[in-house]
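[09:14] KT: can someone run the structure on this one? pasting the chain below
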Amino acid sequence: MSFISQDEISMIRNSASIVDVISSYLPLTQKGKNYFGVCPFHEDHSPSMSVSPEKQIYKCFSCGATGNVFTFLENYLNISFAEAVSLLANQLGIAIQTPLLKKKVDQYQKEFDLMNLALRFFQNNLYSKEGERARLYLKERGLLEGTIKEFSIGLALDKNLFFSLFSKKEYSDSLLENLGLISRNETQFYDVFQNRIMFPIHDLDGHVVGFTARCYLYDMTPKYLNTKETYLFKKGHILFNYHRAKENVRLTKQVLVVEGNMDAIRLSSVGIKNVVALMGTSLTKEQIEALKKLRSQIVLMLDNDEAGERATFQIGTLLEENHISFLIVRLSGEKDPDSYVLQNGKEAILENVKNAISFVDFQLNYLKKNKNLKEASDLSEYIKAVIESLKSNNDAILKEVTLQKLANDYNISYTVLKEQLGNEEKKGNYIVKEKPKEKKKKSGYEKICEEILYYMMNDVSYIRLYQTKLGMFPTQEHRLIANEILYYYEMNKTMHLADFITYAQTTNVKDAIMDILRNVETNELTEKAMLELIAHAKKKIKEQTIEKLKIELSKELDENKKTALALKIVEIKGSVSDENN
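[09:31] RB: done, structure tokens below
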């Protein structure tokens, strides 16, 4: 955080009550000196998250989520640390003297202001006398007043009214053109959008960056006209309705991904708010990262046509390769979710979502298309395609079940199928994605070291005990964490866990520190317990030293040096025995 001082961050944190902040997002109940609530960071059905007003931290005793008021806002709202600090400062009415970040909202403030003015211009047109026919069209499409206002739907009129008005303001023609609002022919500028209903497109943060415009008076080509790619509007970086949907996604732990803007608007209009729409039929790495950030299960619900089916296969393959959990809904009888809701209603959509299928089940059907499985060549091609599709799947059980199903359905040797899958995975032209590494099981000694470090993070007295009774850890990771604790203590002459958590985010060992805070479970910290932990650590250190000396002794040829090593071993053993007595 090079843009704001630790003192300023600490002042903001100390001005806030973690109980007040968290309780503004979820219910908390006081039990003794702490407060408890349902943890929002995993599927929690009973209050397992404890909030300590004394320590100003929270911790879930089920999933291990822990931190201070800033980390709660980061993880709950899916925002950065800098944004969490800024948000809390604003809520407390604290003016931050030093800028946190050079944010794009500052860099492009003029552009955002212009796009907002354009949005209001189009909205006003819709409610003018000239907008009567467009309002009737929207009504006929089943879009009620509330939905029109929620999605800021507007209208572009003809006669270059937009350019006529905005060219007289402080915005240059080149800026209007660069943002895709006007264009030019050989003689003059003209409005890009004319006689079209306007749907604003927002970036992931909620800034208006473009429009998609639909013809309504008569058939025009194209039916939908989007803002051209600009430095604000990058289609591959956007998911329609993302900024509205993310709060509902967080609550439902599920995000519906549809193909068109009208699909998202229609679902939202009937109360299904956890929905985003693609900006085409492909998925970019930026959109994948945005979906990952939601930390929720994805349900692909694309159009019920050949293009939508093909896109489902392609996007599903991409999501699987990125190890993202998702399911698939293929609606029947209607072309898209918009039409399906109008014809069948909200409950029918929800029932489809409830019965969503796995990607493997979808693949098994999709790969059969245009094949006669009674023909040996087509059957062989189909089996190979299914095995090819299983390569990037890390679910060993799902692979097993799929191979067994193929073997049973088509009377093929399971062993042959298994060997074929193994051969495909070993091919040099395909790199099998590694499974997430399992957490290494920690030794008793490692747990003792982590408990000592946990004590040190909680009180100055335990730091002093470490300095006088232990001094250092033999393992580098623990030494680095201890050094950060000591550095923080020397700089601040105190130790407050909530502030140390903030400081830890700037260190190279932040993950290890947060891991300790998640895993160490100690209800009450006492000097006696700390001294016992130190005694265990010292004993282990001496035992490790003895083992090293024994190895040296076994390799030493000089008799005098061997005698010295043996005496050293006896001396250390004696000190261990004395400590045990």
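[09:33] KT: thanks! Residues 428-437 have pLDDT under 50 and may be disordered.
[09:34] RB: yep, looked fine to me
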